[in-house]
């Protein structure tokens, strides 16, 4: 081949890629960049993550979820008080955070803020009147509230606002989200961390603490590029060899929450999939097919709104939610080949030796164009074998069963395998 021919071929290849690249969407992959103890990171959490950015770029990770960044009564950030004060966080300063997000953005990675607005730490209590006062952390009076911003009927912190529209929180006053000033000033603050600090989206903490219309309001007022809500309900797992009807209710509640509060970019963590998956991988893989032949979690009924995950900073600490640690990779084989938007957990990626395996699976996902809406055909769901075909392009199995019979057609070639799992690609 002459040089001219080679150049022509290359340029036509390039124009082909340019013309067709818009249809070639890379799957959104979320990374939870922290664990519960990350605030103790020597030299600062933001700085530490900043040093890992080269590691995250080219990984296929598109969005990084950061811990709550405001001044907080608890070091992890989940009891925020002065929301505009990003210099008192145990994770690092406002300048370090901005620099981290700018560096992520430069690599094409977006930052997702952890939005904790159900409750808020007060600055002082007037013992005589019993009134509480909050401070926003600015020189003006933004977010400087009093007891009128606290829900009435909060048993621990008596407020004079409206009745709570959701579940109560014990550790700090529940904020009255029906108060127009609360709505306005929290929306402004969220828009500030978007425009000033560089966040693109939201992970909304404890959305059970207020009604779905409240979530809808904040999402509408702030137009995030990505948003996921933490609606974490208990789930009963039946032990009698059958799917428990409660599981259907569990994912239906997620679906209903999305329908009431969504309509746009909003998604929900798929706690149903997480809890069933961690039970299934211990010799009960039959659990991974529902009565309609679909995956049993939110991904089986509304995959475009489901954020799948194996573990997070809370579940790893709270029984009965921790994933069996020796089966974690099987969890990733499932979520990274299945529909939904997968979320990778800090500890698994950074601390356990799973990074290379996770990266191989993300690469297979992207190479085959697996997306949040991909189709799943479940070919086997038995105690020791789960085998499914995704988009007629990828076949995966988890479970120790070795004899697969004719389940994998000969035009599929092994792409990656390990203990109790395998992934094939169509040739
Ligand atoms: C935080 O520190 C930065 C300088 O690093 C400053 O510009 C900003 O105003 C400070 N914010 C607060 C709330 O003190």
From TrEMBL:
Show where the Glycosyl hydrolase family 13 catalytic domain sits.
Answer: 28-365
Which Pfam families does the entry mention? Answer: Alpha-amyl_C2 (PF07821), Alpha-amylase (PF00128)
Q: Which Gene3D superfamilies match?
A: Glycosidases, Golgi alpha-mannosidase II
In this protein, which residues make up the domain named Alpha-amylase C-terminal beta-sheet?
366-426
Q: Which reaction does it catalyse?
A: Endohydrolysis of (1->4)-alpha-D-glucosidic linkages in polysaccharides containing three or more (1->4)-alpha-linked D-glucose units
Would you say which domain of life the source belongs to?
Answer: Eukaryota
Q: Which residues form a coiled coil?
A: none
Q: Which UniProt keywords apply?
A: Carbohydrate metabolism, Glycosidase, Hydrolase, Metal-binding
MF term (GO), any: alpha-amylase activity
Q: Recorded E.C. number(s)?
A: 3.2.1.1
**Which InterPro entries would you find in this protein's record?**
A-amylase_bs_C (IPR012850), A-amylase_pln (IPR013775), Alpha_amylase (IPR006046), GH (IPR017853), GH13_cat_dom (IPR006047), Glyco_hydro_b (IPR013780)
Name the cofactor(s): Ca(2+)
Catalytic residues (UniProt): 205, 230
Q: Which EC class is this protein assigned?
A: hydrolase
What GO biological process terms does the UniProt entry carry, in alphabetical order?
Answer: carbohydrate metabolic process
Q: Which family does it belong to?
A: Belongs to the glycosyl hydrolase 13 family.
Q: What is the designated name of this protein?
A: Alpha-amylase
- Organism of origin is Brassica carinata (Ethiopian mustard)
């Amino acid at each position: 081949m002459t040089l001219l021919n080679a150049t022509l071929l290359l340029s036509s290849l390039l124009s082909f890629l340019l013309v067709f690249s818009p249809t070639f969407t890379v799957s959104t992959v979320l990374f939870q960049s922290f664990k519960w103890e990350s605030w103790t990171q020597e030299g600062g959490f933001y700085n530490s993550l900043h040093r890992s950015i080269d590691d995250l770029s080219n990984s296929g990770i598109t969005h990084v979820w950061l811990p709550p960044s405001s001044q907080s009564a608890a070091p992890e950030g989940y009891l925020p008080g002065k929301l505009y004060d990003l210099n008192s966080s145990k994770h690092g300063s406002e300048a370090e955070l901005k620099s981290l997000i700018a560096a992520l953005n430069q690599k094409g990675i977006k930052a997702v803020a952890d939005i904790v607005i159900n409750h808020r730490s007060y600055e002082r209590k007037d013992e005589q009147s019993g009134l509480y006062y909050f401070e926003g952390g600015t020189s003006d009076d933004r977010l400087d509230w009093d007891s009128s911003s606290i829900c009435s009927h909060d048993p621990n912190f008596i407020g004079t606002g409206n009745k709570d529209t959701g579940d109560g929180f014990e550790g700090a006053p529940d904020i009255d989200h029906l108060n127009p000033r609360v709505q306005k000033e929290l929306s402004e603050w969220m828009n500030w961390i978007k425009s000033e600090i560089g966040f693109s989206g939201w992970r909304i903490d404890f959305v059970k603490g207020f009604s779905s219309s409240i979530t809808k309001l904040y999402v509408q007022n702030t137009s995030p590029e990505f948003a996921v809500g933490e609606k974490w309900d208990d789930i009963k797992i039946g032990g009698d060899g059958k799917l428990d009807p409660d599981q259907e209710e569990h994912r239906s509640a997620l679906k209903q929450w999305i329908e009431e509060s969504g309509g746009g970019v909003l998604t929900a963590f798929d706690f149903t999939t997480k809890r069933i998956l961690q039970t299934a991988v211990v010799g009960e893989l039959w659990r991974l097919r529902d009565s309609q032949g679909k995956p049993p979690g939110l991904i089986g009924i509304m995959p475009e709104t489901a954020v799948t995950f194996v573990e997070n900073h809370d579940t790893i600490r709270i029984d009965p939610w921790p994933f069996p640690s020796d089966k974690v990779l099987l969890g990733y084989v499932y979520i990274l080949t299945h529909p939904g938007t997968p979320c990778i957990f800090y500890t698994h990626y950074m601390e356990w030796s799973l990074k290379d395996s996770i990266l191989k699976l993300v690469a297979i996902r992207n190479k085959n164009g697996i997306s949040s809406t991909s189709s799943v055909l479940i070919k086997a769901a038995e105690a020791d074998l789960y085998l499914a075909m995704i988009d007629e392009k990828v076949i995966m199995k988890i479970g120790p069963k070795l004899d697969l019979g004719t389940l994998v057609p000969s035009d599929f070639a092994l792409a990656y395998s390990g203990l109790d799992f395998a992934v094939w690609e169509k040739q």
